[in-house]
Amino acid sequence: EDEAWLPLASLKSKKLPKAAAVASQKKSKLARSKGIGLPKQGMKLYYWPATGKAHAIRLCLAEVGVEWEDVVFDKENKDLPVYASATSLPTHASTKSYTDFCAMCREMGGNFTTNLPMLEVEGKFYTQSHAVYRFVARKTGLYPKRIEDGYVVDNILAHVEDARKASYDILFAGGTAQDFLDKTSKHVANLERLLGDADFFLPDVFTLADILVFDLLHNFYKAQVPTVLEGHPRLSAFYDRVAGRTNIAAYLASEQCARIDKFVQLPSE
Fold it and tell me: Stretch 42-60: mean pLDDT, rounded?
């Protein structure tokens, strides 16, 4: 996916005096107080009527109080959740409603692939999920200013992308809750290791990294196996901490969120 990197020359490291380093860290932590670089309303997010790669974008927008419209295709079988079984997702993907939707998004987004998820901001279209995550985070103060802190966020993004695969693997191949726990145990343990004893993945700063991990835990892992965080008290506390944030909690309880299909719980045997 597209990446947005600083020019190589700007990456040359210089040791800051202690006072300057402290000031730089404070500036990073206060980034969100300077305002939101996105319109407060009028944005559109094009995707499946499902969580998938788009839901982290939705959570970012919800966290900063920005309104958006979910533009989705009409499911021809409205009683079939997207993630109901190994055949449900390809069934929806084979319908005219979906193919027409993808054709529309290709025309608007310009890529020859589906362009999903795609974010429309004031008539301009942004594609490729990782690039959109960073774009939204930078526009809203959810992405840190310091290069070292940015590495932490990007590192978590890579971890989450790897960890999502287990949810899709078990969806298409089938399996039980225990099969899923076997596939995800190292991912969960690794995320708890990276969190350590801090409240968030960047200590004292809520960032895109926290939203990505929460999205993984809430919309993928706990949706399929609600007990997945048992034995991981720090990651479990982190999950509760993010779920309790005012704007995120309000979005999760909203009708807008309820209309989005989620992964379904796996059988115990």
Answer: 97
pTM of the entire predicted model:
0.86
Where do the H-state alpha helices sit in the chain?
18-29, 55-63, 88-93, 96-109, 129-140, 147-173, 177-195, 208-215, 222-224, 233-243, 246-252, 255-258
124: left (phi over 0), alpha (psi -120 to 50) or beta: beta
Residue identified by tokens 């993928």 is 220
Rounded CA separation 145/135 (Å): 13
249-257's contacts with Cβ under 8 Å and 24+ in sequence apart are 250/62, 251/58, 251/59, 251/62, 252/218, 256/70, 257/58
Tens of pLDDT, residue by residue over 87-101, are 999 999 999 999 999
What mean pLDDT is predicted for residues 6-26?
36
d(CA 56, CA 187): 18
CA distance 52 to 223: 12
**Residue showing tokens 């949706």:** 223
**CA end-to-end span of the chain:** 37
Residue 2 confidence (pLDDT) above 90:
no
